[in-house]
Amino acid sequence: MTARWYTNPEAYDARKLKPLEAYLETLWKPIFSNLAKKYIHDKDVIADFGCGTLAHIRLMNHAAKIYAVDANKTMLEFGMQKLSDTDRLKVVALNESGLHTSIPSSSCSVIWSVGLMEYVDIQQLFAEMTRVAKPGAIMLIQFPNANNIVHIGIRVAHVLQATQAKQYRTTTEIRSVANRYGWFIEESISTGFYIPTPTILIPILSPMWKLFNKFGNNTFLVLRKSTSE
After folding, report:
1. Which of 17, 28, 91, 195 has its CA 20 to 30 A from that of 132?
2. Residues 6+ apart with CB under 8 A from 213
3. Stretch 21-40: mean pLDDT, rounded?
């Protein structure tokens, strides 16, 4: 099940205007920025799996080349229109499934994937990300934390309603699949804890929420691919 803001580009970008989304972005933006500065360099070739409206291109535009992959043509085209002429020259837009891309094998030194693992088969996704990655490549991923109290409540609600929810993941699950494909976790960050509450209370409660980031809404992982084939 995919929320409409993940298929409608205007709605996707506008969601950041909502108080809760704005609060979460204040937590996520520094993490994204720091990871990009630390792990992405000017000679890197990047594969951005599930790039959406290319919101993260500005964080990696110092790299040599970027493959921007998304199955939604509308999101991808909308994102490309937002790029500067300089950035657009570095981006190869691929309207393809992240499970089967036309990216050349062993061509990418960095794999980036945000908000995709909850919607696809992660075995197939890791197989494809591994195929395009060079030995020793870095993978930067974000996924919704299955141990977050809100996500637990959502899963219970879907079970009671006999409807399908997106796949919330645990770090243990991701580590198990990653290790199978020769990837090993170097860094793990969890952040974005919150409880549904009236909008007016968010500024008051947010300092307390930050104390529970271990059970945050999302987890960020940095993985490195083994250099042995």
Report:
1. 28
2. 27, 190, 191, 192, 193
3. 90
